[in-house]
Amino acid sequence: MSNYMPTLKQLQYLVALKEHGHFGKAADSCxxxxxxxxxxxxxxxxxxxxxxxxxxxxxVRFTALGDRIVEKAHRVLREAEELASIAEASGxxxxxxxxxxxxxxxxxFLLPRLLPRLRADRPExxxxxxxxxxxxxxxxLRHGNVDCVLMALPYPTGExxxxxxxxxxxYVAFPRDDPTNPPEWIKPEMIDENKLLLLEDGHCLKDHAxxxxxxxxxxxxxxxxxxxxxxxxxMVDNGLGVTMLPEMALNGGILExxxxxxxxxxxxxxxxxxxxVWRKNSPREKEFHLLSEILRDAxxxxxxxxxxx
Length: 309
What we know:
Layout (H helix, E strand, L loop, with lengths): L7 H13 L2 H8 L3 H15 L4 E3 L4 E3 L1 H26 L6 E7 L4 H15 L3 E7 L2 H9 L5 E6 L6 E16 L20 E4 L4 H10 L2 H6 L1 E4 L2 H9 L4 E5 H5 L8 E5 L6 E9 L5 H14 L11
Parallel strand pairs: 3-4, 3-5, 7-8, 7-9
Antiparallel strand pairs: 1-2, 5-11, 6-9, 6-10, 6-11
């Protein structure tokens, strides 16, 4: 049995190299020089007596054993971070560092209401934010890169804990005066499958919108090309089709200075659930419940903007 135990720093370097696939980018993410990171990984390989990374001029390729050790390293680093969190959580809640991923269809609309509240009420909290698509955010959470994720459900999260904050109703947005006298509610059967514009794959709002409509033909025919909600708005404003928007985007003023009208979707499940998600048995669970209350309060009683009326 080897007497050598890898250091957390060496495991961090190895995990960063796997994530970025490039020595320079991995070093930047660890805030060290490329030579320091490379030397740390070489020392790790030398002392355990195996090759973890095959190096060429163009490609960084992990060996099969290297991949297995990276998987274990993720768990070790996550456990080490949680050891530090236990002590931190025993003090005043929501202080120190907190890393949160937020999906793109929430971040620009809810965070402007949340962040001033946190700065005023929790000045000792250092909140680090990452905007990521849903699956990338879940992967970041599982790998210990973030502490929690603000996202929309339903979505398969596996062995993670969550708290639903509120429901975010869905609206159908279309060019103003087309139709001339739109009804107060839009039923799924009223949507032209040839004109529906949705976000590209990777954004869970696309799946939530299609599930709410419950029309297989709509799922097959929908044009999915938008990289963001703001891109879709520009398309609709130019008469290229219609799209689906969450209520929080309307509250955030996404339709201001456009010729677009929005009406609520009428269906059995015309909303998405906004939730905070974290790792099961996290020592900061009580803090996440407290943060959930703050998030819920920040989202309460918004006024729908004029274009949605």
